[in-house]
Write the structure tokens for this entry.
Amino acid sequence: MVNLVIFGAPGSGKGTYASRLKEKLGVEVIATGDIFREIVKEDTPLGRKVKEYMEKGLLVPDTITLEVLKQSFAKIPKGKGFILDGYPRTMEQAKALDEITRIDAVIHLIVPDWIIIERLSSRRICKNCGAIYNLLYLKPKNDMICDKCSGKLYQRSDDTPEVIKKRIEVYEKQSQPLLQYYKERKVPFVEVKCEKLDVPPEVMVEEIFDGLKKLKLA
Ligand code: AMP
């Protein structure tokens, strides 16, 4: 059983790598961004509130986020580990997490801004099954249709260059103290750099997996 946190700017590949590592490691993935998108779809008072923050590229308040996280942990089968994607994003969230569970390692993806902007502007997601595509290097057979389930592909409303820049800015500011926090607490790091736009996901996943093996966590 291994408990991991994955850090990387929006568009660094976190979601794609986490879903592949899920299979390889036999863990659950908790992606707070995905959970919030589901909540927004429900069009409840909570959904409308969350939507306001997400559309501006701002963080959803900690009180809401922590509640959502606790509900997600409650659903993990006993004895199964997890990868947290998109959480923690504030020191308060990191401290709250430490009170709930232990973290065995931090996966840190290092990707330059220009790659992120190129990638996110061409990202498409399946409305039905959530599969992630990229029109540049992870192309669906048909631009608008999911290869796996024939669902319709869409572009996230916050995957526009203006909101992307804001999200990178928010990420940089928020992640630095968090990475520092885990380093000070001597949580082991698996650091992976991506310097090209079209590195296949399986190459990156293999690199992360090797890093985890070296730590005897895989
Ligand atoms: P992501 O899919 O991780 O890029 O998240 C998309 C959006 O969901 C973010 O821009 C935030 O508005 C919100 N969000 C996701 N995770 C968190 C979190 N841990 N704390 C606060 N807001 C979050």
Remarks:
- The mean pLDDT is 94.
- Residues 161-184 form the longest helix (24 residues).
